[in-house]
Amino acid sequence: AMDGAPPPTSPAGLSAYVAVSQLLGLTLLATTGAWLGRYRGGVAWHSPLQFNAHPLCMVLGMVFLQGDALLVYRVFRHEAKRSTKALHALLHGLALLIALVGIIAVFESHRAEGIPNMYSLHSWCGMVTFVLYLLQWLLGCGFFLFPGASFSLRGRYKPQHIFFGIALFILSITSCLLGITEMLLFKISDSYSHFVPEGILANTLGVLLVAFGLVVAYVLTRDEWKRPPLAEELALSMDFKTLTEGESPGGGS
Predict the structure, then answer these.
(1) Element (H, E) at 184
(2) Which residues form the Cytochrome b561 domain (predicted)?
């Protein structure tokens, strides 16, 4: 920015929607903790309560942190692109690690109790989502965070990266909703239809998951809220394109 120029500001409404998303996200975590603590006995690793680490880790990692990672480019609009990319990748990587802990918890819990694995729709959708999420993260780091990919290759892959980023966020929330329903039917199938407090609280968690997803998706799909490229980024992009493609005929490698 030029000396004396006013500091850059966010578009009208963006900050309010981001704040709502964070409030919903924190409420998600609090509601999950309240459900597991009040009705399921809490969370402990080497005990029959190990399973409860699974829903907590999935809501924290695959929903809250993944949603925040998607919002990075809307929130940090005027910081260096390299730093924003690194934060985006770091949050997604942290979400993957936490989700992996949740997956280990459910497999170990099932093994200890003699329960079969990977037979339900929830488990199928959840595992597919996690594997694709890991692949998306690895490809994203390879194309955008580390040097090597050509400018044209990045340009062709970027729309796919954006689409699958939003699609995997939706799949993550869908898997969580399936998991909540499955857990309620296993644990309180006899009383669920009588509007017992645990069922109401878990249903509320499901509604909060949907609300968080909708707010994040709305922020991501508002074209006027996209992060504008800084002047130095445009210059660097042209230099990068010249260096990676300008020396070979036709831009080929």
Answers:
(1) helix 151-187
(2) 20-221
Kindly state the tokens that stand for 147: 């040097």
> Is residue 42 within 8 Å of 32, Cβ to Cβ?
no
More confident residue, 207 or 232: 207
* pLDDT tens sequence across 164-199: 999 999 999 999 999 999 999 999 999 999 999 999
Task: Select from 164, 142, 154, 177 the least CA-distant residue to 63.
Answer: 177
Reported as a single tens digit per residue, the pLDDT across 47-103 is 999 999 999 999 999 999 999 999 999 999 888 888 999 999 999 999 999 999 999
**Cβ-count burial 14-52 (b if 16+ within 10 Å, e if not):** beebbebbbebbeebeebbbebbeebbeebeeeeebbbb
Domains of the chain by range and CATH? 19-225 (1.20.120.1770)
Say if residues 216 and 73 touch (Cβ distance below 8 Å): no
What is d(CA 101, CA 44) in angstroms, rounded to the nearest whole number? 13
Q: H-helix or E-strand containing 98?
A: helix 81-113
Asked if 233 contacts 81 with a C-beta cutoff of 8 angstroms, the reply is: yes
Any idea which residue has 């949050």 for tokens? Answer: 91
What span, in angstroms and rounded, lies between the C-alpha atoms of 186 and 181? Answer: 9
H or E element at residue 251: none
Dihedral sign (CA 20, 23, 26, 29): negative
